[in-house]
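Changelog note: in this version the structure field was regenerated for every chain. One regenerated record is shown below for reference.
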Amino acid sequence: MILSTTDTRKGFTIVELLIVIVVIGILAAITIVAFNGVQDRANASALESDFATLKKRLEVFKIDSPSGTYPTTIAHLDSLGIRASKSAYDSTQNNLYYCYNIANNTYAIGARTKSMKSYIMTDSTKPTVVSSVYGSQTCTAASTVWGSANAANSVGYDSASSLWAGWTDR
């Protein structure tokens, strides 16, 4: 009887395993990048949809208002029955602003998505990407100053209390 001294075990070498791990890592990285891009576009689309709905409701409010004005108080905003797509908005800071210019009967809406893209829309413009939406920038778009006697303002999400305003929660 002749005994063989060669090893007949079968399996993968360390090099083959490393190649498979590297290929899986590359595929995972590509998938994550693609997913983040899709998620960012989805958040932007949700915000633009919210803006379109809000614009329509503000215009209806103006038409129905005896004075022909846009909402000037929180109660007016509450009556619009707005429902923001909250999961699309940044919730680390104040992220949704309404500013109304009493003298000119104009408004601006500012919002920031989870991907930290900021948008401002006025009664006469479509949503536009901007560098910031804090109250002062949103009111500047409405040709007034945040907190002035000539402006009616509201924050949709208050980061200090982690609460959404009633006018975004219908």
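Spot check on this record: The helical segments are 14-64, 74-78, 135-141. The chain has a mean pLDDT of 90.
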